[in-house]
Amino acid sequence: MRIPIETTTLSNGLKVVVAPDTTAPVVTVGVYYKIGFRLEPQGRSGFAHLFEHMMFQGSAHAPKMQHIKLINSSGGTLNGSTHYDVTNYFESVPSNALERVLWLEADRMRALKVDDENLRNQRDVVKEEVRVSVLNQPYGGFPWLDLPPVAFRNWANAHNFYGDFADLDAASLADVQSFFKTYYAPNNAVLLILGDVKPEEGLALAKKYFGDIPAGAPPPFADPREPEQTEERRGEVEEKFGTLPAMAIGYTVPPRRTGEWYAMTLLDQALHGGRAGRTYRHLVVEEQVAVEVDGGIDDVFGYNGPTQMVTKILHKPEYSSEATLAEFDSVIRDVQENGVSQDELDQLKIKFRSDYYSTLEGGRGGMPRYGLMHLLACFSLFDNEPQLVNSILDGFLAVKREHIQAVAKKYLRNDKRAIVFRRPVGAIAKEAA
Amino acid sequence: MATRAAADMHISVPPLSPERQVRWPKRTRTRLANGLEVVLAESHTVPKFHGELFLRSGNAAATHRAPGLAEMTATVVRTGTVKRASRQIEEDLRRLGADLSSHAGADNSAIGFAGLSELAEPLLQLVNELARDAAFPEPEFERERRQKLEEVKLDRTQPGFLAGERLRKVLFGAHPYAQVAPTEQQVAAYKREDLISIYRDFYTPENALLLMVGDFDSTAMLESVEKVFGAWHGDKPVIPPSPEPGKPRGRRVHLVHVPGAVQTQILAGCHAITRKHPDWIKLGLTNSLYGGAFNSRLVMNIREDKGYTYSPRSSVNPLRQYGYFSVSAAVRNDVVAASLTEIFYELDKIRALPVPEPELADARNYVSGVFSLGLATQDGLLSQLATVALNELPEDYLESYREKVRALTADDLIATARKYLDSANMQIVLVGDRTQIEPQAALFGDLEVYDAHGKRLG
């Protein structure tokens, strides 16, 4: 299948991608800025996410609550999310509200209009978000917040992405405006219009609403690279509520869009990929050491810096961490020594293709084509090549058995991995006794 | 002039352009000779299809044997058939580019699936095999049962689960809807024979609905369905009548004590209506205005104005026999009373004062607009068609839905709020650390305290 897309770059540097689709009279609009929590300022952990909240607090001509009210009352939904290397803002609306959505997004790209009261309010909201998803949940933040400080040495990759409360408290309105000025310029963004729109209409409207927003200086980006890892890294985190011991094992992934990366992604499918995956089959079904095993390379197309393939294991308390890890290691050893069969590789490719179609078609939280939007945005911002959406699948389908075995040997090495153990408080007490 | 026009353009909100028509997908609805009801809809977005085989009996219909038995049955269904072992099933699914899940809720059991259009028939054959010839291998059953034991323990560490479980107990009393999960002892007592008996009773074509949406030709797909499922036989199960749920009167507070909780999960609720009720659409709009949308009164109040919580929401929860209305928010411990005060303020306000026309118009647009978003994806359409078919709603339900929403008036809303947003009899569940919140909790009604396992503490 082929996704029709039209692209342009406005004179202020804003990239525009239009993907027409007349299935239903609805459009999804996204604006992606090339800044995520990885490269937020030091001493301001959690700031990129707090800032994302501030983008809903008022812009030049749409004061607080107007933005949300205008989208909802047009029959649409909206949200935003902060990722490692991008932050996105998106709306799905009946297509008769397209111009209104573009106007709103352009208004907040042009100027943010927020005050101290807004900042205090959203700081409180964000703290409750952190409590509801991390601090007051069993296995909250496991392993996405637990593993990076163990695995990485560069602050960019290793800090608390949701933010230490002291850092959130220290964030000021001046920080907000400075971050906006630095990173939220049209030349650091891509606008996406997907759904019930004609390509020429979409491009013309993009120019009409965004064309005269002034470009900013090219933003500075800190270097996210990691020093060479030479030994296994381990860490521990207390589990306050959960009853089962857990661990997460992460191996750093080869650079994206290299031959090794395609092979590693299929290897990930062999190891994870649901109940047919080797880790689940071995640890849960055959050896019955674990209760849950899953993982993989999270958001494989959506990052632009060091990332890991992570296996998460919740295991039965009667097995020690070391015994559980030994079973995991036997799965890794097997694929290093024996690779995968041609039959298995064929299965992996069919499943990968099928999953890819689902990504292109699927929505998120009731917003159609979220997946396609995300891919187009990341391919635009990281690769300047949105058409990759129509060709990247070929790279995965070309992977051969020997490639998979080679990356298993090269990347799944103990001295290249990090492990974090999440131990129920009761269990720690018991082991100490 | 040009500059002036450009400046105006920047400061004024563009109007909505004329609404575009929804093109309803081609739908086929039929019943096979064996009683299997089939609904197909074409959606050619990607070369895939989504399906779900529903069995119209779930955990509620099995509660008199053991709570959660339908869910356990569904779990073990995918672990082996007379022809394929567990590993074979999982590898065959991958070979077909397919995903499959088997699960059960209160009212239905279901096998959900999605796969490539080019490999549709072999996937249907596998689904058919799971529905007719599951073998319940003893070792797989034993493994899944031990796994379930750990899962039910884990459930009881999640504030959201504990709140939902307590509210259902409070609202439904002796009715099976009160049981949202089995206890460890109940799981330990599950027998393989119990599952097989549930399977024989529930998994029959007379009790089933097969729904598929996707990139296929309906005529050809119907032929495949007849070929694959035509020889399946079995009658509707006989389910004993359930006891009436209680009707809790007066506000009461039910505190589930979680030592060390750094936040309090609020969940308040009252009895409401099912989807078949003529007031359903009115209640949906009322809920949306109260707390069902981002732009709702509740969210604007306790999140955007006061910053008490991240994700406050209200919802209407339709089960087949009964429905209930609920409000939830996870708030910091020192504002539990303040949050409840606002929750009830907004409830009492929507019951007391007519909704201003502009706000009502916004809410009508929201509810009818987001409805059409659900038609753009295969699984979105599947879930809408499932709602219609499982609730036996009128054939034109989807087509006429937006029109019905738009016809609602402020009088309809206030009448609906007074009838169903039963402020005086709301049952308040709080999941948190009693040492932090008990004095605040006691302000809102007689207080009962439980531990995470349902044991009464005071």
Provide a descriptive summary of the structure in words.
The complex is a heterodimer of chains A (433) and B (458). Helix content of chain A is 43%, strand content 19%. By secondary structure, chain A is of the alpha+beta class. Chain A folds into 2 domains: 6-210, Cytochrome Bc1 Complex, Chain A, domain 1 (2-Layer Sandwich), CATH 3.30.830.10; 233-432, Metalloenzyme, LuxS/M16 peptidase-like (Cytochrome Bc1 Complex, Chain A, domain 1, 2-Layer Sandwich), CATH 3.30.830. In chain A, the strands form 3 sheets. A 6-stranded mixed beta sheet of chain A has the order 1-2-8-3-7-6, sandwiched between helices. Chain A has a 5-stranded mixed beta sheet with strand order 9-13-10-12-11. A two-stranded antiparallel ribbon of chain A has the order 4-5. Chain A is globular. Mean pLDDT of chain A is 96; it is low at 427-433. Chain B has 2 domains: 27-229, 2-Layer Sandwich (Cytochrome Bc1 Complex, Chain A, domain 1), CATH 3.30.830; 252-450, Metalloenzyme, LuxS/M16 peptidase-like (Cytochrome Bc1 Complex, Chain A, domain 1, 2-Layer Sandwich). Chain B is built from 18 helices and 12 strands. Chain B is 45% helix and 17% strand. In chain B, helix 11 packs across helix 17 (410-420). Chain B has helices spanning 2-11, 59-62, 69-77, 86-95, 120-132, 138-155, 159-172, 184-188, 192-202, 218-229, 280-292, 297-305, 336-352, 357-373, 378-390, 397-406, 410-420, 434-441; strands at residues 27-31, 37-42, 48-55, 99-104, 109-116, 208-214, 252-257, 264-271, 313-318, 323-331, 427-432, 446-450. With 458 residues, chain B is an alpha+beta fold. The interface between A and B is large, with 90 and 84 residues.
